Amino acid sequence: MQVSVGGTRTCALVDTGANISVMSKQFFLRTPYSTHKLEPPDITSVIAVNGDHVKVLGKVNISVTIGNRNFSASIYVLPQLHHSLILGVDFLKQTKAKLNFENDTFEILENNDVVTLSRLTLKKGLAKLIKAITIPKRSQTLISVAVSHQTHDSTVLLEPLKSLTHKHRILAAKALVKIKHGKSLFKLAKPD
């Protein structure tokens, strides 16, 4: 989803599988907030999608603009990240956001009114693994997929096939992702 952080535009990943919102150090340094000293974080590390523990560099309060609406957010800064900004469950709860699959929209509740911030354009395509992988039990991994029938720089909703869970015992959530040169990243988990 296209957002602006202090006037610096980026594509944020809306991730219902992430408890907290995080930003890469590289993107942080491109924003006006880089002149501010990072606050000490209340958590010292996070567990990445691949199971690695990643040190949290600090925390920063920012303004995120989505459409024509501004939101305050507390964001953790990480040394490296596959996306410049991930808006997690903390941000979604704070803004009372919801993905409305019936209307293909990303919405928030503002003063008891539903405000549509983004429309999802649904074009069917297929996401295929770029290379074969093995997912260990009780782990999560970020995979690279080739996505058909989508334009470069578009935001799409990747939705796992039911056979992924039933046949292969792998879990995946619906995710809004950015397509770059026909490719994107997708998170999978194998519980047992």
UniProtKB/TrEMBL annotation:
This protein's UniProt keywords: Hydrolase
Coiled coil, from the record: none
Keyword Disulfide bond carried by entry: no
Top-level taxon: Eukaryota
Domain Peptidase A2, residue spans: 10-91
Molecular function per GO: aspartic-type endopeptidase activity
Record flagged with keyword Hydrolase: yes
Protein name listed in UniProt: Peptidase A2 domain-containing protein
